[in-house]
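Continuing the batch. This is chain 6 of the set; chains 1 through 5 are on the previous pages. Same settings as before, nothing changed between runs. Recording input and output for traceability.
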Amino acid sequence: MPKVKLDAHVCLIATCKPGRKRYDLYDTGTIGFVLECQSSGTKTYVFRYQDQYGKLKQRRIAPYGDISFAEAQKIARKWRAEVIMGGDPGAQKAEKKAILTYNELADQHLAYVKTYSRNPFNTDSILRVHLRPKWGSKRLDEITTPDVAKWLGELRLSGKAPATVEKIRVTFNRSFELALRWQTPGVKVNPVRGIQRPKIANARDRFLSSAEAARLLAAADASLNPQLGNIVRLLLLTGARKRELLDAQWEHFDLDRRAWFIPTSKTGKSRYVPLSQAALDVIEKLPRFKRCPWLLPNPETRRPYTDIKHPWETARAAAGLDGLHIHDLRHSAASFMINAGIDLFAVGKVLGHADHQSTMRYAHLANDTLLAAVEAGAAKMHL
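Output for chain 6:
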């Protein structure tokens, strides 16, 4: 273990001894400061020390030539002081290496969602399309609240739909809440939590008239997607959410009792949907595929559709209903029921609303029905 007073000149002329792969020069001035000389001609500044358990460790400072001798010596002295105070210069580096990137956390997030959700597609889509491209390569301790708030603001200013930005925020927030629960290294706080978000006027009062519904069904029947007509009909006849219908299985239907059991929904609760005779007629005519449990599968894959965006938009345009969302079929189902005189409580039960506030968005329709009733009564009185 050759010891020498290291300085800039000594380091300049130092070489590996002939016949050896490596030759180390230990500084007599700073304990643990070493210049490694390799037979290949490369030289490296390193720091060697014993941790609190007496284990010999080494931490690389820098290759010779990348920094000056004075800079290397300063780093070695700093780490030596840390060792004297009972610290471990290598611990911080090890902790840093243990910190995940957001891509790695996103993998864990999605894997967790798949353990309880049969529909991880929305989470996967938001992670893949929005969050991974922006934050995937960053380590978790590098993601800060100001940066997240600025990015969400930029998304809103770019014209992204407020509801979409909110879904992105919720998913990002969920990632870090899970990281905190799992005590993931590098995550001491949730950088998404507490970011002020604007109120979203998300309620859309778009209801189909009977004539519009007929045009839409005709366009859906003409679609290249052989299931689109059935999907649109059943969404209108049941008021179900798109994903609930696309994931429906034959075993969930009791046609004798005219009931459809939905085991999981947006609210997290199961529910039964009553089936009208019109809905039964559609279901009884559906094609059945051998060893396929799904009600409305893609005939090619025999699996549920992950999305029907393209055929939906084509049919919508053909029907002259630009701007109509597929979720508006659910609103339209509620509208048809209320205009037929069904009370709000019953409509809320059919739709599977978790609370009455969700159903109250249709209150004006119920009032219109009641108003028509009293007007009809008044007309009969001839007052």
